[in-house]
Design goal:
The complex is a heterodimer. By secondary structure, chain A is mostly beta strands. Chain A is 0% helix and 54% strand. By secondary structure, chain B is mostly beta strands. Helix content of chain B is 0%, strand content 51%. In chain B, the strands form two sheets. In chain B, strands 2, 4, 5, 6, 9, 10 and 11 form a seven-stranded mixed sheet that branches. Chain B has a four-stranded antiparallel sheet with strand order 1-3-8-7, with no helix packed on it. Chain B starts with a strand and ends with a strand. The A-B interface holds A 6, 9, 32, 34, 41-46, 49, 89, 93, 96-100, 102-105 and B 4, 33, 40-45, 48, 58, 90, 92, 96-107.
């Protein structure tokens, strides 16, 4: 049973446009959500997070939106740059007491 | 600070051979984790250690053992490697007991023939 789902395996966006990566979850107990970015031959790196008490968190070009009623979060990258081309993983946890659960990832390609 | 280091970077094993993947972190983190990444499967947790002296199974623990040697080091052992264990293995650490923001090592690419 997949608790964190990233239904789009890949996404292509033109440089300068907005990239929107989506993530759905099934466990209503999740209260903290994160996005990680992974380049080939490297480990994932933390990008941005959001607590369930918020519906938006922004960090520079990256914004994460959380819709608790829909059990859905999204990562917006504006403007997209070629260096953003990577695999993005959504992850979730609850109570700070359980390990993160990761989605399968979405490969973003930003085309110059 | 080196962050999280893993050795080796690459390894080829024959079926039935054993090996230990090493992981160390220099951030004084309490929790450490081992993941495997397979195409189309995302990151799956093998084992984790919430604090020094404790270890727990994750989603895919079969065929693996772990040792939390001290606060810095967390090793993953394959006693009898199988082709199904061909994967990229990542070690990670986090500050809090079980926490959110994990720091990952560069990975070990393991091939079992």
């Amino acid at each position: 049973d997949q608790q964190v789902k990233q239904n789009s395996p890949s996404l292509s966006v033109q440089e300068g446009r907005i990239s929107i990566l989506n993530c759905d979850y099934t466990n209503s107990m999740f209260d903290y959500f994160l996005w990680y970015k992974k380049y080939p031959a490297e480990g994932p790196t933390f990008l941005i997070s959001i607590s369930s008490i918020k519906d938006k968190n922004e960090d520079g070009r990256f914004t994460v939106f959380l819709n608790k009623s829909a059990k859905h979060l999204s990562l917006h990258i504006v403007p997209s740059q070629p260096g953003d081309s990577a695999v993005y993983f959504c992850a979730a946890s609850y109570s700070g007491n359980t390990p993160l659960v990761f989605g399968k990832g979405t490969r973003l390609s930003v085309i110059a | 600070n080196a962050g999280v280091t893993q050795t080796p970077k690459f390894q080829v094993l024959k079926t039935g051979q054993s090996m230990t993947l090493q992981c160390a972190q220099d951030m004084n983190h309490n929790s450490m984790y081992w993941y495997r990444q397979d195409p189309g499967m995302g990151l799956r947790l093998i084992y984790y250690s919430a604090s020094e002296g404790t270890t727990d199974k994750g989603e895919v623990p079969n065929g693996y053992n772990v040792s939390r040697l001290n606060k810095r080091e967390f090793s993953l052992r394959l006693e009898s490697a199988a082709p199904s264990q061909t994967s990229v293995y990542f070690c990670a650490s986090s500050e809090a007991r079980i926490s959110y923001e994990q720091y990952f090592g560069p990975g070990t690419r393991l091939t079992v023939t």
